[in-house]
Amino acid sequence: MEKSGKRPNFLVIVADDLGFSDCSCFGSEIQTPNIDRLASEGLRFTDFHVAGACSPTRSMLLTGTDHHIAGLGQLSEYTRNSPAHQGKPGHEGYLNDKVVTLPQLLKDGGYFTIMSGKWHLGLKPEYSPHARGFEKSYALLPGCANHYGFEPRYNDHLPGFFETAVTALHMENSAYVPQSPPEPDFYSSDFYTSKLINYLETRTPDEKSRPFFAYLPFSAPHWPLQAPEASVKKYKGFYEDGPDALRLRRLESLKELGLVSSDVHPHLVVAPESTEWDSMTPDACAKSARSMEVYAGMVDRMDENIGRVLSSLEASGEAENTYMLFMSDNGAEGASIEAHPIMGDEVISHLEKYYDNSLDNIGRYNSFVWYGTRWAQAATAPCRLYKTFSTEGGIRVPLVLKIPGASKEEAEISHEFCTVMDLVPTILDLAGVEHPGTSYNGRPIAPLRGKSMIAYLSSREQIHSQDEVSGWEIAGSGAIRKGKYKITYVPAPKGPQRWELFDLQSDPGETKDLSQGLPEVMKEMLGYWERYKKEVGVVGLAGELGDVPLTVDEFEDTGKWTRFLAEGGIPVAS
């Protein structure tokens, strides 16, 4: 890695709920030639870790500290329905004043900072990207929305699940965008990419004289699964043999590419709420396969748009001085919402009334589907489970890093352990900007918890020593890792709701619990958990908080989202 006198640019691209093996350079049948191009001249990291959910990861990506400290201890959608977490420090639902963001520091250091895409770190102007360091921004504020900006005209009660899953609420700089969708041919991945390119290509002379930090966080391939038919039709018939067959193919591809060990023992699929493929009706199989085709189309379309950004940078001559990074924010989304014991029936009833989920219409603007737990575990194999769990399937994701000037001869697969918190100190080091430590503009802030990767990039020095401890917790599922050992806590019914001990070096699938055979190691790791829990402010694990099932009314938090939109002057369907 060579340094030039000119400070580098940065392009950070984030996919939403993309599984470990969903890109072709990570073993997928989905065509991602532009991500592959970055990988062919860069590094593919196989042991890169994030939080088990979107906004917690994004908070760590932008601050370099733990999400329990930064304000996103849980997804805000989770906290608002969990009395145990409400009002607790670090669970504000937006980036709090205890942190300073990467774009704030880069802007202070002379960088031009821009973003376009999903924010999910606060809904109000004072919590917006513009308020946290982005000079220009176009942001989807909630965690997801219809990718075409469509919202039905309701004539009855809106189930709470849909309150933050439909409305495409956007903000440009510090002002809400009054119309939804913002243009007639709106499609999320296309539009966010066009905005970012526009910000780059319309820079003033002053803006162009400065290096840039560009952040492109897609809302794809998060549900609802929707993509233009031109992107979907490429995958027609690819998934007719079901998720278990896909899982086996992906595993073989991962082995052939050297991304996992040839003798890896994958974790079994855990899907008590779903029906085995061979037991499903032909119509159900067809719709499920179609949903996966649409998912593939979303990933394909996202990659096509990444190619547009790369072409723009190449045309301007800036690609050769730009660090380019691609990652996912968590493991694949495995929720089977239709099987939820409280809201499942109401959600299905609402979908039947307001959407057209017939076979041929799946993926269109007025459809609303997800693909469920079995397809997700095809993408996270050989690892255990998926998003919202602190298992490897929930927190281990693809990372591709293209270093300026690197060639195909320098492409490499890296098995080095690293985390999303390491990116802030790495980018700051590369930019020549110092982190302020524990004080920023006269207020106390949390110090960095991540470690700079710059010594690894230049001379392959280890990023985290074998003695360092890393911790995770999301939705009551916890984990601690030190060296090759990891303890994992998986809530029932997807796990035993107790701590288990694994040797990730020989068992990355977390299949063999060693807690009984290695009691001293287990005791040591549990001590590290208590320390981590206290340091970052974990509220508790599943089963520790007097957990009781939420009632329908509690889950729905009736009307709060609609009232928020109305109070902000944002038109909503009625």
UniProtKB/TrEMBL annotation:
Keywords: Calcium, Hydrolase, Metal-binding. CDD domains: PAS_like. Pfam families: Sulfatase. Signal peptide: none annotated. Residues 8-433 form the Sulfatase N-terminal domain. One of its GO terms (molecular function) is arylsulfatase activity. InterPro entries: Alkaline_phosphatase_core_sf, Sulfatase, Sulfatase_CS, Sulfatase_N. Belongs to the sulfatase family. This is Alkaline-phosphatase-like protein. It comes from Tuber borchii (White truffle).
